[in-house]
Inverse folding.
């Protein structure tokens, strides 16, 4: 398979997912060494999980399949430009490339508008719609201290 075929597969998964009512019209695959390692579709409504986006599902499945938390030798193909959450997950997974079909503007036109999230991220914390307040109970830094002093940590 080549990049065009892999993208068609991601789009096919998205189309099937929308047609069978299992979630939103989004699909993604992870490719390594010329083969599909994992696939994911949007399952937000069927799993009652707001993080169950196609890209996140595909990343989770690929990491499980490969036994690693980084996908540095992989490419991700997704039927739509990733949302802010998925972009974060993709960066943490560290694939070598991401390819997408539909744009975020095309997604917004059918009701999947994440523009407000980009706007909120750009604001200082104290100006965001969702209240976020820092709290520092005694010992709040202990997990960081334990991590910093650990000789057994696996850095990522």
């Amino acid at each position: 398979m080549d990049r065009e075929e892999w993208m068609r597969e991601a789009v096919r998964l998205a189309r099937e997912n929308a047609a069978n009512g299992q979630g939103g019209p989004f699909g993604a695959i992870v490719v390594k060494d010329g083969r599909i390692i994992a696939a994911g579709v949007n399952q937000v409504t069927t799993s009652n999980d707001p993080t169950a986006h196609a890209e996140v599902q595909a990343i989770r499945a690929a990491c499980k399949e490969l036994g690693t938390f980084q996908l540095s030798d992989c490419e991700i193909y997704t039927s739509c430009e990733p949302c802010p959450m998925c972009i974060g997950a993709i960066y943490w997974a560290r694939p070598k490339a991401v390819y997408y079909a539909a744009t975020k503007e095309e997604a917004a036109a059918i009701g999947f508008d994440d523009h407000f999230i980009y706007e909120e991220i750009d604001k200082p914390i104290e100006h965001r719609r969702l209240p976020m307040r820092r709290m520092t109970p005694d010992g709040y830094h202990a997990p960081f201290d334990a991590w910093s002093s650990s000789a057994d940590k696996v850095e990522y």
Q: What stands out?
A: The radius of gyration is 18 Å. The mean pLDDT is 96. The beta strands are 27-32, 35-41, 74-80, 97-102. Residues 70 and 90 are 10 Å apart (CA to CA).
